[in-house]
Amino acid sequence: MPFPASGGGAYMRFTPKIIRFQRHGCTNRPFFHIVVMEKRFEQHSQVIEQLGTYDHLTNQHNERLVALNFERIRYWLGRGALTSDPVAELLGKALEMLLFGALSVISKQDKF
Amino acid sequence: MLCRSCNVLFRVQCTSKLNIMRSTAKQSATEERDPAPIFFNSNVQQLLKKLTRVDLNKVFRTKNYGVPLRAPEYKFLTTEELDEAMKNAEKKAERKLQMPPVVKVRTEEPEVLSYDCELQDHSETKFVFTDISFGFSDRERMIVVRDVNGTLRKATPDERHRMNETYFPRSGRKLRMPHMFEKEYLKRLLDQGNYEFVLDRACLQFEPDDPTYQDVTATTYEAVERAQHYNSLRSTRHFGPFAFHLAWNKSIDSLLLDLIETDRLDEAVSLIQLYHIVNPEAKSVSSHFEPGLEHSFIQAYVESDSKKRSVLELALQANVELHKQRAEVEAGVRRAHGHT
Q1: Calpha distance B85→B88 (Å, rounded)
Q2: How far is B304 from chain A (nearest CA, A)?
């Protein structure tokens, strides 16, 4: 039974986790999911959770699109998940957003 | 020597003052009034709702927007149940008739979050980051852009629209602006009288502070005004903003004429009251409405502020005569029945 791309993999308690890219798309058209998974598993094994997407190819407006679920990324970083170098680079480019995002989450909790 | 130094001093002072005056003049010219606080005022909302003239048959009619039709359901109801059902329908109609907001056109530049000169030329392309965390609306969602020169800024409204539509598509909203909002196609649609369709779709496609939205709606309102097809917008959610647009641009005369000719004096009074709230500098603001004296209230507006004075006066005169005749007939009927 195949698992959905968005996650569902088994979670083991004391093993290292990593936030990394998982290549999707097809030949000559890469598209990456940003996922959290067991560090020792190979790339296309089942993931614990999908945290975002990254479109490596530029669009017509000269942009590369990154979608990140900062709420969950903060959760997994807090649980001690590692990050692969390319993901760390991306997160670093949006560092202020990570911080500002934390503020917006606080305001959201106030709201509810 | 003294005279020359005085002269220089005078010139310096004068230029600085002149510059200040010029800048203030420029500010007042560029600073437009913000319609939002007036539009959201509860009095104004009530007046607009009154002008909308809710007709449940029209509110719940089927629109041919590509949604498959459902077969009607027939039920036997007692009188109480029927009243209950009617009340529910009225509530639902109120929700359906919620007016799209009228706000100022947006102008602000995107806020810069940080300048990171270390990241200059980090890549040949921009990076757009979208926070897809659960529970944020399209307006609240955090979307930022890392530019090629290393600055991190919030996304422009255009970028925001594209990202929201990419990651959170809404049925009916398109990534690119539909061709029907371009000038030539829009004109054709308006000539055919598809006002409501245009406005509905503009509501779905654009944010209310989008300059394109305001252009499209203003063009549509002007087309309705020119063709005097007021009934095509009545009982829809767009009549309120339409009436507000007319009052804002001081061109309520045609609508007022239509209301007087169809003998809707209460609505005519509401329209003039709306005009007074929106334009507090109008000459007839001082006149107050008292129930029963509709004609004199309208007359005060017609005399001091209207641009089509002669036509309006004629219509008003005819309406006064009509009311007089009606009163006479009523008195005659009462007399015939023996009530003196």
Answers
A1: 5
A2: 50
Task: Tell which residue, B217, B186, B187, B185, has the closest CA to residue B200.
Answer: B217
What are B235-265's pLDDT values in tens digits? 999 999 999 999 999 999 999 999 999 999 9
Q: Which residues of chain B does A104 touch, with a Cβ-Cβ cutoff of 8 Å?
A: 131, 136, 140, 142
When scoring B114, B132, B158, B159 by the number of chain A Cβ atoms within 10 A, the one with the most, hence best to mutate, is: B132
Q: Which pair of tokens denotes residue B260?
A: 């007087």
ipTM of the complex: 0.89
Interface of B with A (CB under 8 A): 113-114, 119, 122-123, 125-136, 140, 142, 144-146, 152, 159, 162-163, 166-167
What's the first-to-final CA gap in chain B, in angstroms? Answer: 99
C-alpha dist (Å) from residue A8 to A3, A4, A23, B5, B154? 6, 7, 18, 84, 33
pLDDT in tens, A21-33: 999 999 999 999 9
* C-alpha–C-alpha distance, residues B52 and B239, integer Å: 6
pLDDT digits (tens, 9 = 90+) for A71-83: 899 999 999 999 9
Q: Which is nearest to A20 in space by CA: A96, A89, A99?
A: A89
Please report the domains of chain A, with CATH numbers, ordered by start residue: 17-111 (3.30.1320.10)
Chain A residues with beta carbon closer than 8 angstroms to that of B128: 63-66
